[in-house]
Design goal:
With 334 residues, this protein is mainly α. Helix content is 74%, strand content 1%. The chain is globular and about 55 Å long.
């Protein structure tokens, strides 16, 4: 008589959704605790100017985190989102300042540059079978070098481009409703979040994004061209990084070619804190937004409390490890 080991049952979609909802609820509760704690610790925290500063910081990191969410759901990772953001800002500076072309072409140039870089990363991963970690690490270094070469290692300023700073710092909502001076950068973040949520939930690209992360081999055996869909995901993520490049350049009124490295860590941290699984197949834009707000509130609160920069970095790293550990525990329970 032979005895076969029982095969563990795969987690049901309903169980995975319930676990994800619990994780997002926990993240949201953590955000509330941070806000209340910093408000009690410092009266400056809840000032209008500081809240706007938090939202402005979240707009850049949030858009980057949404781009990273798409890639991570497929089971990959993108370490180039920070330097890609900078590269897109530099391309925008070249189009507007060096070539003197109209503002819409500068915006289009930044988004297309991001899409092109994302397409290259996706091709390396899908066609050349380079591991995502290595492919995007290489792209990070390539884009960092190209940003310095194209700009001549000097910042590119947008002083002669009317309306450029309004992209992130203006307030269309404030003009319509003076009592709600919501910066355009935050409005753009919300619009990007809504658009990507729609793509993930209502389109074929969204369905295949989750399918690639859940079981890529099964998708391939069913006759789907997984390489094409994976490249499409990386391309979309790259174009979103282009939007982040526009936001940060508008905030600084310049394209800083040495900026960007390190942003990918904050973006990935926001994604993981928001409940997207590093193993792929699960994640939401809402969770990522909550994670990005947690990161912004935490760093802002630590600065207000005059915590040294090096300790802020220690706290950020600790949170990343904790978030990954919680994700591991959650997957074991499914």
């Amino acid at each position: 008589m032979t005895t076969e080991a029982a095969t563990p049952a795969a987690p049901s979609p309903a169980a995975a959704r319930l676990s994800g909802a619990h994780h997002r609820l926990l993240a949201f509760a953590s955000l509330i605790v941070l806000v209340v704690g910093f408000s009690l610790a410092s009266p400056n925290f809840m000032q209008t100017s500081n809240i706007i500063a938090i939202l402005q910081a979240t707009s850049v990191n949030g858009v980057l985190a949404i781009a990273a969410t798409l890639v991570i759901i497929t089971g990959g990772i993108d370490l180039s989102v920070g330097t890609l953001m900078t590269f897109c800002a530099v391309i925008c500076g070249v189009v507007l300042t060096y070539w003197g072309l109209p503002l819409p072409l500068g915006v289009l140039g930044a988004i297309l540059a991001g899409a092109a870089a994302g397409f290259c990363s996706g091709t390396f991963v899908a066609k050349l079978k380079v591991p995502p970690f290595i492919a995007t690490l290489g792209m990070m270094l390539i884009l960092k070098g190209l940003s310095l070469v194209i700009s001549g290692t000097r910042p590119i300023y947008f002083n002669d481009t009317p309306g450029f700073t309004e992209i992130a710092q203006g307030s269309i909502v404030g003009v319509l409703i003076p009592s709600v001076p919501l910066p355009n950068g935050v409005l753009i973040l919300f619009l990007v979040a809504i658009a990507v949520s729609f793509i993930l939930s209502k389109t074929a690209l969204g369905r295949y994004t989750f399918a690639l992360g859940s079981n890529e081999e099964a998708v391939r055996l069913s006759g789907v061209n997984t390489d094409r869909w994976k490249i499409a995901v990386y391309t979309l993520a790259g174009s979103i990084c282009g939007i982040a490049g526009l936001l940060i350049a508008s905030r600084l009124n310049s394209a800083q070619p040495a900026l960007g490295q390190g942003y990918e860590l904050d973006a990935i941290a926001a994604v993981v804190i928001g409940g997207t699984s590093l193993s792929g197949g699960r994640g939401t834009v809402l969770g990522t937004l909550i994670g990005a707000l947690i990161m912004s509130v935490l760093l802002n609160g630590l600065r207000i409390l005059s915590v040294a920069q090096e300790w802020q970095t220690v706290v950020t790293g600790s949170i990343i490890i904790l978030a990954v550990y919680i994700d591991m525990l959650r997957r074991r329970k499914l």
